[in-house]
Amino acid sequence: MNHLQLKESEHNFFTLFKINPYPLLLTRLSDHKVLLINNKAIHFYNLASQDLDQIDGFIIYPTDEDREEILKRLQQEKYVKNYILEAREHGDSKWVMINYELLEYQSESCIN
After folding, report:
1. Taking CA atoms, which of 54, 63, 66, 88 is between 20 and 30 Å from 29?
2. Do residues 53 and 96 make contact, with C-beta atoms less than 8 angstroms apart?
3. In 3D, which of 84, 58, 82 has the Cα closest to residue 71?
């Protein structure tokens, strides 16, 4: 019974992740490997032609300074809400507000 409930919970998680109307990425904290990405994020970051293994998890940090500040705040507070940054991709620039959160996924620390 527990195995069946776990499978159902995983299915629900993937479904909600996939249909979320906002760009979502799930990256492993240890090496920033992208574990999950929804279609909105693929479109937002212009990644339609890339395989999941080719996507650089650092894409969620436009600059090294942003990455350092966000990771520091995540270690202290476990989340960063309404972080405003300038996302640059393929010569385009746009201002965005992003939320980051530390969470456990498949027994590993991840950033969503």
Report:
1. 88
2. no
3. 58
